[in-house]
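Entry 12.
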Amino acid sequence: MNPIVLFDGVCNFCDASVQFIIKNDPKGKFRFAPLQSDIGQKLLKQYHFFSHVDSIVLIEEDKTYCKSDAALRICRHLKGLWKLTYILIIIPAPARNFVYDVLARNRYKWFGKKDSCVLPSSDVRRRFLS
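Predicted 3D structure (tokens):
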């Protein structure tokens, strides 16, 4: 099963992050679903997350990761030097997640918010779960 990234579908920063992953994942390994979507909510329940989770979630090999763990594990699979960011996993999770939480709390204020999830272009749509 391909890894699945659940993301905030109305957050401009999260949308830009998904576009970044797509651009740096030339093999098309990752699949995506907005947290707000039916499939996103179904997967959250299946993996015992609260439906109001406010973090990126990675489902990989039937395990789940969120916050900085998810972000670093995603980077590990990207092309180029982004793989090297995985070394930050040696920093204790509370310290990494402190930085993650500051960004998450302020993402709408700093980057804006959409009224709804944006549909991807047809060439990338196949990577989004529905």
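Annotation: Strands lie at 4-7, 31-34, 57-60, 63-66. The first helix runs from residue 12 to 23.
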